[in-house]
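#lab-general

N.A. 3:47 PM
ok so I finally got the sequence cleaned up, no stray characters, all 71 residues accounted for. can someone with queue access submit it? mine expired

B.Y. 3:52 PM
send it over

N.A. 3:53 PM
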Amino acid sequence: MSALTLRLPDDKHQRLRALAKSRGTTVNRLVDEMTTLMLAEFDAETHFRLRAMRGADNVERGLALLDNVAT
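B.Y. 4:20 PM
back already:
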């Protein structure tokens, strides 16, 4: 496991502490959960961008498939 030093304004730190307390967790766990969500979002975006690039040359075929589904 790695350590990370994060510099935040005091008011933001206090708000994070209050949020963590309201959720019954620590600031460390809260930041860990936030980074997990952000990384999952990044992975999903990367996945869909790659799929879009692969299908960029097949626009007509894709539209035809959508038309078939709609009917």
